[in-house]
Design brief:
The protein is of the alpha+beta class and 402 residues long. Helices cover 56% and strands 17% of the residues. Strands 2-3-8-5-7-6 form a 6-stranded mixed barrel. It is elongated and about 105 Å long.
Amino acid sequence: MLLNTILLALRGLARTKLRSVLTMLGHGIGVTAVVTMVTLGNGTTQSVSAQIASLGSNLLIVMPGQRGGPGSAGSSAPLFKVADARAIEDQVSGLRAVAPSASQSTTVVAMARNWTTSVTGTTSGYFTAANWTIASGRVFSEAEERSGAAVCVIGETVRNKLFGAANPVGSVIRVKQFTCDVIGLLASKGQASMGRDQDDTVVIPLRTLQRRVTGNQNVSQLTVAARDGASTDRVKASIEELMRERRRITAGENDDFNVLDTREIAQTMTGTTRLLTMLLGAVAGVSLLVGGIGIMNIMLVSVTERTREIGTRLAIGALEREVLSQFLIEAVTLSSLGGVIGLALATIASIVLSGAMMVPFVFDTRINVIAFAFSAGLGVLFGYLPARRAAQLDPIEALRHE
């Protein structure tokens, strides 16, 4: 009996092929919008997490001022000294590396090529703390740090701009007015959060930068990496206490520095992207409801057009539940096939848009199953009213219908 009802429903849809296909397509577009928005949102979240993780694990960044981050460059708070980094290294336990650093944007030249980049002066601990690895060559030694040697390690972007695909190790570049031996090439990290190119950098010993580029002893940032297993909250509290003491900040006064925990930044940014994903998915979900209303409209039209057919079935002994089942099956078939079309279109759209937006394509089976189940459920919800109207028709009145 159920099989006969299903066959009747499918024959009913087959009689109006174009209308059925257009209804399924309209419903499928709603599914496409929801799944594509969620997939792109998940890809963006994963991209943000990876970019922050590339900065380093268990990483704390101590910045002058309270705003923190690159935007605090204009802060009036006093900068740090190398002694601050040494004090942290000596008095705070659970650390893997501490690196003072200062940066200045300047033009570097190699042969006939030049490129404006960020030149960072720091110690060798910076490569450990900031999770840098060396693609070729080496980092500078402690002896080169102490003497302020003219040596540098360059990033992938600088290599491409100055040397193309050639290995730069052993070459010479000019930084401001002095020449610098390239002793190492950093492995590429790609873009960081906010689109900053991490590979667009030249790293030299801090003393070299202070003597030959900036002309002062200031340190604009302290990079601190905690050991694996160490509590970054405890390390952060210890650093804050030490810096308040060294900068003579009394009780009740606000700190004139900021300790950024990259783990907290990651949690905040991924939480924000997830929230935006949910909002976009909810907005796109409205199109699913519109598709459901379209299915109900088409089913009501179908019931009106087939009133005499329904009356004939009821007159020869068909039960109300059989007529109800027939039209419900038609509605669910429309919504389910629309869901399948939507999932296929969403997969294609997500792959294309992920490539264009340079975020990873993340196929989430759970989201696809939920979207399909919700789509099929809308068929039951919006198909019930037309199906009930068909089942409750008076056979005599239905047979008189013109």
